[in-house]
Design goal:
The protein is an alpha/beta fold. It is built from 12 helices and 12 strands.
């Protein structure tokens, strides 16, 4: 069985990938995570006792630690999820994003290259470095613009997007300059279980459940393409096992929705499940607030290449997937409230 080193495997998307791979006995996983505020070991607790799983707490920017991990576990592939990801946090504190998404990624690439060069010829040929990125590197779309594809020029507009774009370029540079067999993926907005509750969907579920005001940026007209995290994890496995080094694959859910429509749908589903609040629908909790600086209007992805080359198809319809996500958060309200009590700035909005 192959050994895959996953960085950031206690994060939202990384943990979904870990659960899929370990739960399906597809490969051994070595999960390397720094365990920052958004990491959640509970998200992988269901597979943590499996013989095909190991955890190491480490920073990908710590070259000595990563060198030891490579020497101990001898991975056949790396899937790099480790990143700072929240746009609002990047506006408030961009240096942390530069450190993690750019500087630490470079250090990881340096150690990966040294390890890869030490492998026998056959192992070098089969090795993969899969770098997980975002559609935000492509900038913003207008209402009638065609969706992003793999060859869309980069035009990042936020500190978060700029640092992810930089990391994508660095991975490509290591591939073209040094021959490291790398693959880059870009995805649309993810949703689903275990997402840290400062992002749009879990934040609105938590606040609407509690009867709190629902702050929506601007007029709520910004559009996002929503992809269920389990569909994304399935696509990443296919990119890792079927993808061609040097290629980029874009994953999108084909579910574009204005943010206000998503918030209204959450309100309606909660009203149906829990009943209205004192006879008033939860839509009345919506409160429009000053828009985020540089807020991108629309993201969307054309996933034709992933569908054609990887035989990938998302399994979740957005409305059904959102209903299941709402149910999950209601069933895990203790976890959400524990995070809210830690005051992790959950007044922040998240739209991607």
């Amino acid at each position: 069985m192959r050994t895959i080193l996953v960085t950031g495997g206690c994060g939202f998307i990384g943990s979904a990938f870990v659960r899929r791979v370990v739960g399906g006995n597809l490969a051994r996983i070595v999960n390397v995570d720094k365990l920052t505020y958004a990491a959640n070991p509970d998200a992988v607790a269901g597979v943590a006792s499996r013989p095909g799983y190991a955890f190491v707490q480490a920073d990908i920017g710590d070259r000595a630690a990563m060198r030891d991990i490579f020497a101990t576990h001898r991975p056949d592939a790396i899937v790099n999820f480790a990143a700072e990801t929240h746009v609002d946090r990047s506006i408030d504190g961009p240096l942390a994003f530069v450190e993690t998404n750019v500087a630490a990624t470079v250090r990881l690439l340096v150690e990966t290259l040294d390890f890869w060069r030490s492998l026998p010829e056959g192992a070098r040929a089969g090795f993969r470095f899969l770098h997980v990125s975002t559609d935000e590197v492509f900038g913003a779309l207008g209402t009638d613009d065609p969706p992003f594809i793999e060859s869309t020029p980069y035009a990042p507009n936020s500190p978060y997007a700029a640092t992810k774009a930089a990391s994508d370029h660095l991975v490509r540079a290591w591939m073209h300059t040094y021959g490291l067999p790398a693959i880059v993926t870009n995805c649309s907005n993810n949703y689903g279980p275990w997402q840290f509750p400062e992002k749009l969907i879990p934040l609105m579920i938590a606040r609407a459940t509690a009867g709190e005001r629902l702050p929506v940026y601007g007029a709520g007209t910004n559009i996002r393409d929503w992809l269920h995290v389990d569909d994304h994890a399935a696509g990443l496995w296919l990119a890792l096992t079927r993808g061609r080094p040097g290629e980029t694959y874009a994953f999108g859910g084909g579910a574009e929705r204005p943010n206000l429509d998503v918030v209204h749908l959450i309100c309606d589903r909660l009203d149906a499940r829990l009943g209205e609040l004192s006879g008033s629908p939860r839509r009345a909790l919506v409160e429009f607030v000053v828009d985020r600086p540089g807020h991108d209007f629309r993201y969307a992805i054309d996933a034709t290449k992933a569908r054609t080359e990887l035989a990938w198809t998302p399994a979740h319809d957005f409305e059904d997937g959102l209903s299941g996500t709402i149910d999950w958060y209601l069933d895990h309200s203790d976890w959400v409230e524990a995070i809210r009590r830690r005051r992790y700035a959950l007044g922040r909005l998240g739209t991607g």
